Amino acid sequence: MLRAVKVVHEKVRTAQGVVVELKGWRVPTSEYFPEGVKYSFFAVHAGKVLVGYDNHRPKGHHRHFEGKEAPYHFAGFDKLREDFRRDLDEALKGLE
Q1: Euclidean distance between CA atoms 59 and 1, whole angstroms
Q2: Is 80 exceeded by the pLDDT of residue 47?
Q3: pLDDT tens-digit series, residues 59-80
Q4: Which long-range contacts (CB under 8 A, 24 or more apart) does 23-32 make?
Q5: CB-CB contact of 8 with 77 (8 Å)
Q6: Which of 21, 26, 84, 93 is the most exposed place for a label (fewest CB within 10 A)?
Q7: Strand bridging mode 19-26 / 5-13
Q8: Measured between alpha carbons, how far is 72 from 60 in angstroms, rounded to an integer?
Q9: For residue 34, is the peptide bond before it cis, meaning its omega torsion is within 30 degrees of 0?
Q10: What residues contact 59, with CB distance under 8 A and at least 6 apart?
Q11: Within the chain, where are the H helices?
């Protein structure tokens, strides 16, 4: 049986107290994970999600931003990291 293989796991706390955690795995392809990836990229401040991207079942790829959830088109981990960083930069402006 194939297992999940961790491809990224980073966790930091910024000077502003924002906890940023990026987790990603290669997983066996399946109905729920047709690309063979699973991920959870989140930034949280004072218990509130500032930005998040994940693809848990049954929802599939989606994005959390500004209190809303919307579908997300996954185009690889590099693009995911770029999109997450862009949204995080925007969200951090609101904390200044």
Answers
A1: 25
A2: yes
A3: 999 999 989 999 999 999 999 9
A4: 24/77, 24/80, 27/2, 28/2, 32/57, 32/58, 32/60
A5: yes
A6: 93
A7: antiparallel
A8: 9
A9: no
A10: none
A11: 77-93
CB 53 within 8 A of CB 84: yes
Q: What is the mean pLDDT of the chain?
A: 94
Element (H, E) at 23: strand 19-26
- Predicted structure pTM score: 0.92
Q: Measured between alpha carbons, how far is residue 24 from residues 10, 38, 66, 68, 90 in Å?
A: 10, 6, 23, 22, 23
* Cβ density class 69-93: b for 16+ within 10 Å, e for less: eeebebeebeebbebbeebbeebbe
